[in-house]
Design brief:
Number of helices: 7
Shape: elongated
Largest sheet: 2 strands, antiparallel
Oligomer: single chain
Strand order of the largest sheet: 1-2
Order of helices and strands: HHHHEEHHH
Radius of gyration: 37 Å
Number of strands: 2
Helix content: 40-55%
Distance between the termini: 150 Å
Structural class: mainly alpha
């Protein structure tokens, strides 16, 4: 007979930690699965689809861990008092950094990937950033059965010869292939992390504004709504001149005492 072992439930604080861990670690990853490329949806193509199959299976877990960490940071700093000026400055810096990272990614992607068009669609393979070997793709084979590509492009070299990733990778050194794979993985993580950080700053800014309005309402003050026409291009309203301050009243001049009347002498 099997003996049933009773496993006690974790204590209250441990349950709270468990809920946070599952929500921020698993729930965030599941919610971002279409964006990260884990789940396909009609009409949307994730950035990860530009990557070879050999990189997707280990880049997605790293991106999920990164997004979970950012969600944890947003949850933590959402309870802190942050200045709106600091949030605007960080958002501008992140936006500029994301733009620079995107431009660098476009340049490095062309150097680290070879795109071959086939009848079933484009196929993506990792290539080395340096020059390929002169005997490519005939390394380790009889030259009588294989013709080197010479000065042909990478796409033309492998289109009619072989689509085997191992044979394509053999045209470069193993170190060059690993460097290209690392550059692609880091580029993906930087781009997704930058986007997640910008969205996090946006959420924190709204949270701080909400807390500010709640503090004003608690003090009995109503938050001022933006006036109509206060946006860009609107004419500023003329302010009414402030009323003049009341000056102190001028001291009254005391009249000089009247001289005593002289008695008439009889």
């Amino acid at each position: 007979m099997r003996s049933h072992v009773h496993i006690p439930a974790p204590p209250r604080i441990a349950r709270h930690w468990l809920n946070k861990m599952l929500g921020l670690g698993v729930g965030v990853a599941l919610g971002l699965a279409p964006l990260l490329g884990g789940v396909g949806i009609p009409g949307f193509k994730a950035l990860l689809l530009l990557y070879p199959e050999s990189l997707r299976y280990w880049v997605i877990p790293l991106a999920s861990l990164l997004m979970g960490g950012m969600a944890t940071a947003v949850q933590f700093y959402g309870e802190e008092h942050l200045r709106q000026r600091w949030l605007r400055r960080m958002f501008s810096r992140l936006g500029l950094g994301l733009l620079v990272a995107l431009l660098a990614f476009v340049f490095l992607y062309q150097k680290a990937v070879v795109l071959i068009r086939t009848g079933e669609g484009p196929a993506v393979f990792v290539r080395g950033m340096g020059a390929r070997s002169e005997q490519c793709p005939c390394n380790g084979t009889d030259l009588g059965e294989c013709t080197p590509c010479g000065s042909a492009s990478d796409a033309e070299c492998f289109k009619d010869i072989s689509l085997d990733p191992d044979r394509i990778a053999s045209c470069w050194s193993r170190g060059a292939i690993d460097t290209s794979a690392q550059v692609l993985a880091l580029g993906y993580l930087v781009l997704m992390g930058g986007l997640g950080a910008m969205v996090g700053i946006l959420v924190l800014r709204g949270q701080q504004a909400l807390r500010h309005r709640q503090r004003l309402l608690a003090r009995g003050k109503h938050p001022r709504a933006p006036a109509r026409g206060s946006g860009k291009g609107a004419h500023p309203r003329k302010r009414k001149p402030a009323p003049p301050k009341h000056s102190k009243p001028a001291p009254r001049h005391r009249s000089a005492p009247h001289p005593p009347k002289r008695k008439r002498q009889k």
